[in-house]
Amino acid sequence: MTKKALAGAGLVLALAMGPALAEDVTVNLLHVNQTGDPFWKQIAENYNASHPGVKVVVDYLENEAYKAKLPTLLQSDDRPDIIYSWAGGVMKAQIEAGYIEDISAHKADFEQTIYGAPLNAYVVDGKLYGVSIQLSEVLMIYNKDLMAKAGVDAASMQTWDGFLDGVKKIKAAGITPLIMGGGDKWPVHFLWSYLLMRQGGADVLLNAEAKPDGFKAQAFIDAGNRLKELAALEPFQDGWLGTKYLPSQGLFGDGKGAIAIQLNGFIQGQQKNATDGKGIANEQIGLAPFPSLPGGIGKVSDTLGGLQGFLVTKGAPKEAIDFLKFFATAEQQKAAAEAGVYVPAIKGTDAFIKNPLVAEVAQSIANSTWHQNFLDQELGPSVGRVVNDISVAIAAGDMTPEEGAGQVQVAWDQQ
Amino acid sequence: MAETTSFPATRHGGPRGGGLLTALIFLPPALTFFTVFVILPIGEAAWYGFFNWNGLNLLENFVGFENYVQLVGNKVFSRAFVNNLLIIAISLSIQLPLALAMAVLLADRLFGAVGFRMLFFLPYILADVAAGLIWRFMFDGDYGLISQIAQGIGFAPLHLLADRDWAYVAVLTVIVWKYFGFHMMLYVAGLQSIDRHLYEAAAIDGASSWQRFRFITIPGLAPMIRLSVFFSLLGSLQFFDMIVALTGGGPLNTTHTMVSFLYYFGIGRMRVGFGSAVGVVLFILCATVAFSYKRLFMRDD
Predict the structure, then answer these.
(1) ipTM of the complex
(2) Closest residue of A to B275, CA-based?
């Protein structure tokens, strides 16, 4: 521990000496939100204009590239001062390694502008390490026209049996029931995650982590069995194992499938990635929560989604925290909220949301009885990717639910 | 007599003043660079391979050969290893013969030969990632050219890259398409250095075109063929970029190569210790192949 502290202190010193030579203090921010990028660059410009002597630079890196590059970047002297984060296991590893600044001293300030629940995702061992900025939710997004054509009422799909029945009917009508970007794997793990949440309830992960072989518990096997039930109906489009996430949005936008159980960002994405660039109009899109499971202890109001935000790295200038305080205000988040790019985790921004679908998502997150972070983030990079792998394999009929749960356990034990 | 005794001494770098001085001046810089940039990283990777390490924390969790044990039992890695062997097989059995045939056809100064040579060489100039993306579109089941043609002649849409049996066949096809032009160019260069008079003499002696190919072209090209097999072997073992762009290792992890396995399962999952172990295995494989091939086949080149 002392060794770590010493190394940390050395780095702080080395970094503190760097900017001291320059006239301006530069704060570098690195993130992966492509659609948010222009809005965030604008916020940085607003800040720079009103804060002479400080220069905030916002840079964007593609998702996978960012994840692969970050560990190396953090160990270098060139590490960004503010980094994008999904909270959860990856963040914990970064904190444990001593690369993230403890910002507990500013907690009261952030609590004034950021909702409590998402901010709490950035608390580890009672200390605050980051701020949440954008919220997302995985939910059932459906094409009203196609549902009507198949004669299926979305309300009837709110229980698992009703959902399976609906899928059968849609398929019988010659329409692809579910659009899935299986090529990227993580879109499939949403299904397994929700089934697990509905089956095992809010404590399912904590229980699993606490016990030896906890990930082989019945709830995990059951979740796999439900997924297998669904997969047996062959609900996905042809070639779904190769379809990447963005093209899958395009397929939905082109009206090639009735339902997607995906992130709320999918709603804008299907319009942008449709062949005609318009996709399915907002009025033709319906939203619904993931169905309930018979015998499960999770509630329909439990939600799965993201709590993305920022972390301040060790040795960053104090202006970095000051910028985040500026960033996390309703005033600065207004433009992004109005454009419906994401749901800000910032108090007072819901009034700015114009898109009724985004407003519906924001409402549903606000009413959530338990908002679970993405499992592939929460469980850390290694276990998380195994969860993605086994979700795809079970959905493709390549793996039994027992094997899947076993592989998650092995990955958990290996880390 | 004096000359004969001093000769072997010089050859073994004996203590002749000039030689020693030269060595003292020129060896240290090269040796330093080689040590810092080649030997040390390899040693470091080998060291990391004995740890369960996520790339961020201190190296504390020493696990001995555990990473290697995990590797042996890993189905995806076994598949990746087989996939590498398949690339070698396809290179030797299809790519190189095809390249040779094309080279023989296009080595002469025929009308249009230069144009064709350029055409076949073009894919090689293209970046692997770009080629991968282009073929990803070509193979797309909904909008891709190949699927459209299949539908045009009455088949169902073809989702090649989503099919666990066909995805790797598609990858191999792209590999042949991409690299045969490079080997063809090697052969063309080799062919042009064969003495024309040999062919003339053979023709006068009544040798058939097959005999000329078998007894002049092949022996004349032999050094080039050995070189091209060498490139092909090492290239196959190190194959990576295009996998990322074309399939990302999917569907169901059936199209990984050892390097893409290292990237996705080591770096991507923040299991740097495990990834280093993969790297060590890969290094040993490549080094063994390279040195034994050089010893066995390229001694005289």
Answers:
(1) 0.82
(2) A382
